[in-house]
């Protein structure tokens, strides 16, 4: 999980953090940002859906830990100083912090997409889009189209129905088991194109699996946000289709069959050039790029903090904006 790689990076001596755009400090007065090392995705995943039959062991509650974290943060002088605006929080799982997201919405959130966030909770202005950690080893793609993933999501299910009987189309339903990952790896490593439809959220880990497999992503997701778009031109590594067009009978496969071998090799060459941005475990890879993206938020965070101190406090019943994008006025709460 990305949260582990970031935490592990911060535990290293500075001499081992090769090429990092951020530097650790011991004096909080010197800090521009405060990283909150809460493993939100892991906490969510290990939370049991129901108690085991006959088990006397106490249940782990993700909700209780979310609340406990907020209670602890709100007691910290540096959180209270700027209402958490200069704090960085990893929330890559779509449901991470679902119970307390309003309490951390002013912070710099590291998220994979905005699928579960409201407009006043997430923003490209203050937050950073990060990639899911891939579960498939890097390899070179060579042959066919594959649809990978569990069922779920309207577009994904409709595409399954549309493509299941098409010649040259291989459909694999992935699972989190070792055998499931092995099957997905084989499929992506032997495919020219990997279909990436929207599921219950706009993005999913299969997109980043396909990138490191050098399998050209075919993205069918109208609301997707992508990591590191200031340095990556995704048109060079992926094919984008609107949902309505992709769902037309015979359109998708016909379009892909029309792409020449030379063009596919161009896509794969570009994929090979940028795949390091999606590899958390390699030196100067995803972790350093995330820190670079966070560092770029600093001018806006300082702007937000200074404006927030200056502006008249708004009516708490009025709609708020996490990016503080307008000079709103309201009820004076303090002088």
UniProtKB/TrEMBL annotation:
The entry's keywords: Glycosyltransferase, Golgi apparatus, Signal-anchor, Transferase, Transmembrane
Subcellular location: Golgi apparatus membrane
Domain of life of the native organism: Eukaryota
Keyword Phosphoprotein: no
Membrane topology classification: Single-pass type II membrane protein
Source organism (scientific name): Prunus yedoensis var. nudiflora
Pfam family, one: Exostosin_GT47
Keyword check for Transferase: yes
GO cellular component: Golgi membrane
Family under the similarity heading: Belongs to the glycosyltransferase 47 family.
GO molecular function terms noted in the UniProt entry: glycosyltransferase activity
InterPro entries from the UniProt entry: Exostosin, Exostosin_GT47
Domain Exostosin GT47 per the UniProt entry, residue ranges: 3-255
Protein name, per record: Putative arabinosyltransferase ARAD1
């Amino acid at each position: 999980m990305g949260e582990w790689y970031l935490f592990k990076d911060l535990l290293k001596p500075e001499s081992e953090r090769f090429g990092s755009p951020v530097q650790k400090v011991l004096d909080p007065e010197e800090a521009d940002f405060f990283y909150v090392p809460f493993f939100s995705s892991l906490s969510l995943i290990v939370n049991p859906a129901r108690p085991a039959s006959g088990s006397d062991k106490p249940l782990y509650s993700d909700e209780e830990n979310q609340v406990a974290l907020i209670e602890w943060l709100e007691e910290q002088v540096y959180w209270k100083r700027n209402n958490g605006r200069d704090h960085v929080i990893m929330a890559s799982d779509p449901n991470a912090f679902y119970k307390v997201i309003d309490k951390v919405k002013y912070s710099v959130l590291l998220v994979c997409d905005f699928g579960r966030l409201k407009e006043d909770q997430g923003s490209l202005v203050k937050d950073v889009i990060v990639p899911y950690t891939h579960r498939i080893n890097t390899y070179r793609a060579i042959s066919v189209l594959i649809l990978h993933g569990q069922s779920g999501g309207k577009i994904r299910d409709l595409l399954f129905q549309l493509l299941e009987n098409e010649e040259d189309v291989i459909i694999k339903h992935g699972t989190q088991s070792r055998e499931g990952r092995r099957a997905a790896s084989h499929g992506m490593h032997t495919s020219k194109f990997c279909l990436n439809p929207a599921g219950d959220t706009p993005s999913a880990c299969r997109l980043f699996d396909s990138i490191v497999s050098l399998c050209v992503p075919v993205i069918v997701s109208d609301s997707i946000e992508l990591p590191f778009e200031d340095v990556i031109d995704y048109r060079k590594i992926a094919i984008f289709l609107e949902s309505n067009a992709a769902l037309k009978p015979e359109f998708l496969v016909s379009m892909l069959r029309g792409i020449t071998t030379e063009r596919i090799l161009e896509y794969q060459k570009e994929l090979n050039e940028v795949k390091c941005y999606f590899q958390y475990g390699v030196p100067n890879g995803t972790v350093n790029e995330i820190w670079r993206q966070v560092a770029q938020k600093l001018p806006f965070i300082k702007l937000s903090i200074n404006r927030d101190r200056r502006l008249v406090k708004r009516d708490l019943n009025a709609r708020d904006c996490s990016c503080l994008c307008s000079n709103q006025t309201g009820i004076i709460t303090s002088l």
